[in-house]
Each structure stands twice: as C-alpha cells, then as structure tokens.
C-alpha cells in the first residue's frame, strides 16, 4: 500500500488504532484524528519505524469547529485521499446511568453523541469528496463504521419535522427520556447508513468513481464502552481489535465491494427468518417496545455466537435504512446543520 493515503477518525484507540497500525505496516500514509495531542504524538513516535507514515490530526468530534480546523490542517498535508474511514464514536452506556446527564455539545447545543458519531462525519465526508475524486485508485471509498444495532431504530427520531431538527439531534440540559437515551447509539448508526445512500446517489449522478460503504465490527473490546461492568464483560467475551478490523480491511480494500454494501465480521443477523417483519414491529406490550427488547436480546446473543461465525460478510440492513425519502430529508437537514463549516 505504499503511496496510499488513508484518513482514519478516532485513530488513538480500539479499531481505529489497530487499523492505523496495520495499514502503516503495509506502507500506507495514515492521517489519524484524535482529541488528545499527547496520545497522537505518542502514536506517531511509536509507529515511526513502520514502512508507512503517521500524520497526527487533532480533532474533537463533538465540536464541529474543531473538526473543521482539522480538515484545514489535513489540506495543508495533502490534496488527495484514497480511503476515508469514519470510525470515531462514543456511547452513552446504559440509559439508567446516563439519562440524567447533560447531553448537549458544548459548542452548538446539539446532542453530543449525535454530533460525534454522525454530524462530524457528514462534515468530513462532504468536505473530502474532492480529495477522493483526485485519487488514482480504481475505487476510492469512504467507510462508515456503523453497527448492526441500527436495527433498533425505526428512523422516527431522525426525521426533520418542518423547521424543527430531528429529535435525535437535540441536546438536553437536564435529562432525556429513557427510550431516547436507549435509542441514541442506534439512531446515530442508522443515520450513517442513510447518509451513505444519499451520498452514493449524488456520486452516481456525478459519474464519480468514489464509493461509500459501511462496516459493522460486531462486539469488539474497545474504549467506546463506558467504564464499569459493561466494559469488563465486553472485553472478556468480545473480539480484540486485531480481529475486529478483519472485515473493515475487506470493506476498505476489496475491489468487489460495491456502493452501499454493509460489511461485517459476522453474518448472524442473516439467519433470522422474516426479520424484516418482526424486527420492525412497532407494537407494544404493557408499555414495552417489543422491537427494542428483541434487538437487545439478539445483540447479547451475537456476542456469544460471533466467534463461531467469523469472516467478511455483506450483511442485510434494516428496511428503514432503505427509505429514500428519509435519506433525502436527513441529508438535506444535515447539510444545513454543517453549512457553517462546509
């Protein structure tokens, strides 16, 4: 991969760090973002002996001004990219532990997780498309690190309501409803898939060779899990980052991957019969949202069985991810939300 230029967001930990290490060993130039200048410098020093080159880029993905400054810094290093991996992300943890927290971004008042996981990558993707179009690769691409957990979201909290922004984007000074906290991560991952499809249609109209694809690592022990029992259990049972990037390399590099493909390390979800009917059921039972509980149960099951069904698979995505009207509505709103920095 000598001469290949790869941008990785969230490159100081977990999957992003492992991917950067692997690609640097293959000779690539890696532009890695992180919010700690100390961590970035330490990584640059530790990887100085690799055949590739690590270029640290400071960015707080919950702050769109910081992301914009990072993109300006990137442009001073290169005007061409071959691959972009939108990996940076956070998770609020268990809703009961986080629903009484102030979830507003310090810079724009929107939901911190939504800005970090989704809007920061909208801004990055839209800004670097000209760089990707200059690539000499046959199929330069953007890889959205999403999640099979997007199935928990029915998309209703992502739909703009006239002049009002999507409910999932709104920050809260004191607390959020339990269910909104519970859906926040899944909403952000569905939003990434919706953006992927909207951008791919635009690229097709422009006859661009750039492809946007998505990736799900399944359960991997990384720093995204909040401190506590949840992180300990995940680290004990899940894949380590070196296994977690297996299908990510496939999504980023394999020539047969097509626009809109959703690649994962496991294919367990494909074995669920009629899931497009019962996993999208909106009905409730005594106040319980059955879709939420079914997908939570399935997600826990996946942690135990993923090691027996490991590879690089093109997965199915939820029916909502294919809703073109929702794709276009969210994309139009998202462009307005980041317009100050475009």
UniProtKB/TrEMBL annotation:
Gene3D superfamilies in the cross-refs: NAD(P)-binding Rossmann-like Domain
UniProt keyword Plastid, yes or no: no
UniProt-listed InterPro entries: NAD(P)-bd_dom_sf, SDR_fam
Record keywords: Oxidoreductase
Similarity comment: Belongs to the short-chain dehydrogenases/reductases (SDR) family.
Listed name of the protein: NAD(P)-binding protein
């Amino acid at each position: 991969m000598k001469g290949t230029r790869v941008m990785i967001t969230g490159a100081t930990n977990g999957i992003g760090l492992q991917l950067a290490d692997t690609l640097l060993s293959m000779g690539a130039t890696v532009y890695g973002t992180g919010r700690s200048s100390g961590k970035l410098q330490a990584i640059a020093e530790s990887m100085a002996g690799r055949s590739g080159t690590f270029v640290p880029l400071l960015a707080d993905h919950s702050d769109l001004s910081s992301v914009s400054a990072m993109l300006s810094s990137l442009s001073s290093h290169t005007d061409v990219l071959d691959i972009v991996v939108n990996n940076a992300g956070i998770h609020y943890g268990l809703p009961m532990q986080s629903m009484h927290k102030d979830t507003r971004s310090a810079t724009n008042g929107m939901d911190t997780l939504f800005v970090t996981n989704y809007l920061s990558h909208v801004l990055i993707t839209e800004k670097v498309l000209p760089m990707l179009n200059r690539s000499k690769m046959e199929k330069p691409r953007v890889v959205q690190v999403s999640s099979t957990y997007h199935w928990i979201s029915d998309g209703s909290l992502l739909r703009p309501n006239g002049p009002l922004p999507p409910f999932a984007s709104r920050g809260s000074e004191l607390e959020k409803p339990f269910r909104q906290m519970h859906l926040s991560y899944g909403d952000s991952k569905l939003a990434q898939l919706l953006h992927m499809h909207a951008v791919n249609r635009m690229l097709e109209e422009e006859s661009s060779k750039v492809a946007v694809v998505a990736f799900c690592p399944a359960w991997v022990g990384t720093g995204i899990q909040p401190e506590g029992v949840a992180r300990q259990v995940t680290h004990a049972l899940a894949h380590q980052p070196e296994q977690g990037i297996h299908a990510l390399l496939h999504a980023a590099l394999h020539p047969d991957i097509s626009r809109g493909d959703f690649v994962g390390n496991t294919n367990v979800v494909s074995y669920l019969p009629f899931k497009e009917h019962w996993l999208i059921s909106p009905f409730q039972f005594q106040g319980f949202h059955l879709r939420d509980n079914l997908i939570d149960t399935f997600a826990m099951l996946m942690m135990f069985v993923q090691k027996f069904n490991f590879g690089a698979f093109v997965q199915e995505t939820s029916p909502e991810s294919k809703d073109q009207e929702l794709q276009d509505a969210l994309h139009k709103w998202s462009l307005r939300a980041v317009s100050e920095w475009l």
